[in-house]
């Protein structure tokens, strides 16, 4: 049985060898001293290839960015006089277009809102109970009870100030209401 225990040095140096078969026995034939020199040449050639690739890619991107900058400057140089010449026409035209678009969008939004409200009112009036109708009924009942309460108080104070006979037909305690004041 062969010795399968490998050291860290064996594993790291084995990965640098360009040979297809990576068996430890094959490396023993060449000799480590001879192969390490070849591995250094191999790593230098890889570094040179990486540097050449990086320079080529970086250079081409630098050329493209400079061309984009030059094109932008030329377009700005050509467009600036045209914008200055036509600005008395373009600025009001842009303002008009913006106002027209805003008007159409807002009128469409208000139209959709109106259709929604009319649909809700129709459903409520025909007896269907759309969403929120219970809150509307509750608010209507509260408002009705407050209106009735104000009517009763106005009637009570009106009779009290005119000197008329006060007839207590209300089921509530009027003495308590008198001491409490108006709410």
Automatic annotation (TrEMBL):
Coiled coil: none annotated. Residues 158-183 are annotated as: Disordered. One of its GO terms (cellular component) is monolayer-surrounded lipid storage body. Signal peptide: none annotated. The chain crosses the membrane at residues 54-83, 89-122. May have a structural role to stabilize the lipid body during desiccation of the seed by preventing coalescence of the oil. Probably interacts with both lipid and phospholipid moieties of lipid bodies. May also provide recognition signals for specific lipase anchorage in lipolysis during seedling growth. Belongs to the oleosin family. This is Oleosin. It comes from Brassica napus (Rape). The lineage of its organism: Eukaryota, Viridiplantae, Streptophyta, Embryophyta, Tracheophyta. The gene is BnaA03g47170D.
């Amino acid at each position: 049985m062969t010795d399968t225990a490998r050291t860290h040095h064996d594993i790291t140096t084995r990965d640098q060898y360009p040979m297809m078969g990576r068996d430890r026995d094959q490396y023993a034939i060449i000799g480590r001293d001879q192969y390490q020199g070849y591995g250094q040449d191999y790593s230098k050639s890889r570094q040179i290839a990486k540097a050449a690739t990086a320079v080529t890619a970086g250079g081409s991107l630098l050329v493209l960015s400079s061309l984009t900058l030059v094109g932008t400057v030329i377009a700005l140089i050509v467009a600036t006089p045209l914008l200055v010449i036509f600005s008395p026409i373009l600025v009001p035209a842009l303002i008009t277009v913006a106002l027209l678009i805003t008007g159409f969008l807002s009128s469409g939004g208000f139209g959709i809102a109106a259709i929604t409200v009319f649909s809700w009112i129709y459903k409520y009036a025909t007896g269907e109970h759309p969403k929120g109708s219970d809150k509307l009924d509750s608010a209507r009942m509260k408002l009705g009870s407050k209106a009735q309460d104000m009517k009763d108080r106005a009637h009570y104070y009106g009779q009290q100030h005119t000197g008329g006979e006060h007839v207590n037909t209300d089921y509530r305690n009027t003495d308590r209401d008198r001491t409490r004041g108006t709410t």
